[in-house]
Amino acid sequence: MEEWFTREIVDTGRLRLFCFLVAFIAGFLFIRFSVRMIRRQVRWWPGNVTPGGQHVHHAVFGLVFMCIGGVGGLTIDDELSGLAAAAAALFGLGAALVLDEFALVFYLRDVYWSEKGRLSVEVVFITVALCGLLLMGLHPVGMDDVAGEGLWSIVVALLINTCISVIALLKGKIWTGVIGVFIGVIALVGAVRLARPDSPWARRRYAPGSRKERWARKREQRYRRPVQRLGDRLSDLVAGRPTGE
Question: Domain containing 24: what range?
Fold first, then answer.
């Protein structure tokens, strides 16, 4: 195990990313456990931080941790030192606290335990997936395929892969578009297939009552809804069930 870690993580320059990801996951799981205990009003668990009656959201602490970890990491020359790993871990912890309240920042109101609060959990899952792909050695927008090629080859590959991923995202296929940044064929599949009915692409290009709009809604009901329900169950298991709108 130690040899694998040294070979695959340390020697490849991914130590800081590994520390970031581990701290990010641990921080998210801890803060979700904490808020669920507070929600249940468990006596043995400390409550919210409310100095002078002002509720301090944990995103505030996350921003402080991110500033310390980010700026501290910039001042460290040795990327393999313990200090560099600690700075990356502190940044990951702060990022977890901030993204756990992403929906509050996005909507500018407290939607933590509402259906809209699921957005925070989705963003956290996407972040973990992206970091996991990077940790596996994958590079975004086809950089693996054009490594060693000329400048124009790199620019063309970047533009093509980015445009395909953006089309998939505009069609409402978030996971397809995000993973497609690293694996181009996945983004291509999402880009050529029908858009989700409520996506920006569908609202602009599928006329109400048109054949494409009807097909998109049928596909949404037949395939997307079951997957969404499964994702919601996983989200509820990890982060707690929303209580309302």
Answer: 1-137
